[in-house]
Amino acid sequence: MSLISPWRADFPGILALEAEGQTYLDSAATAQKPQAVLDALLAYLAGGVANVHRAQHLPGERATRTFEATRGKAAQWLNAASAEEIIFTRGTTESLNLLAYGLEHLLQPGEQIVISALEHHANLLPWQQLAKRRGLELLVLPLDDTGSVDLQQAARLIGPRTRLLAVSQLSNVLGRWQPLDELLALARTHGAISVVDGAQGAVHGRPDMQALGCDFYVCSSHKLYGPDGVGLLYGRREQLNKLQHWQFGGEMVLDADYQAARFRPAPLGFEAGTPAVSSVIALGAALGWLSSLDHAAAARHEAALHAELLAGLQARDAVRLLGQPRLALASFCVDGVHNADLAHLLSEQGIAVRAGHHCAMPLMKGLGLSGAIRASLGLYNNGEDLQRFFSALDNALELLR
Fold first, then answer.
1. DSSP label at 243?
2. Closest CA to 293 of 201, 230, 177, 380
3. Residue 307: its pLDDT value, please?
4. Which of 214, 219, 333, 359 is catalytic?
5. Residue 78 needs a FRET pair 20 to 30 A away by CA distance; which of 141, 168, 239, 344 works?
């Protein structure tokens, strides 16, 4: 019996793609949007827009109230201690760049930044460039055969000179939860700042900042079934107070004259300029929709779909999985077949998957690959989507061989 998604009807985009003969299996790149998000966008845009935090008139007051309500929803979603620990950014990438500049003054030449071998470019390049600017050593934690950070190696590499640890919660290529509890404990032992990239992890498990105990956590709206152009940066209050400002302009200023200025603390001190008001408001609707779900039912559906995806791939000759994916996605290559050729033939049959290095070129180089195919799942996907995918995959492989 084919798996059925009870949430599929909430997503007009999925239904529209289906009507075009398209099967969407690229949610790790960006997710489709539920009707609640579309309704929130239209209500704000059609109801009279205004800037936030700047005006005493009714439209401005209304926009500010709704905008700040999303900050409260985000704090609840992440189980932060306060809404003041939530900064709105343009996405995970901007959040990580903000941290790389905002924390720069705390790191001294010869100290170490530690990342893992599986990081997305967004959680590699800002730290790589920071290391170059400050004369720091960038250490890379190796992986075990499953695609998880090797904890024995991590215990050896994370040491007294480690000042910052930046790791992903869930790999966007290997589909594995990483051993954050152990890694964060190692960071705390040596007094290192900890940064968690939750771009993928926030989508597939309710994040809990109190339980996780990291210093900073970042994620993106567009993967959380919300609009693009918005991200969340959580920081523990005592760590936020250490950040230096990195963008300057309207709203973040307390007082300014021609030669000097004083700036607001977080969160508004790190939200220079007009924010993405409509997208932040719509993110609030996405978080509301997510909060309304039966989370146990959602987890069961995702797990069953993922098991079906893995079983179908493992049943096909010459298909090689990357690592041992546990959730949400599977990346694979086929012996003797270029990933771009395979993706092209899948696309011609209406199958939307991702091909290439998935913004993790060093990981791919380490695996000896130029790229791979990634199929990734959302709550709206069902068993019929996978059946169409496997049928198209068989057709493509027959042609290519």
1. P
2. 380
3. 98
4. 359
5. 141
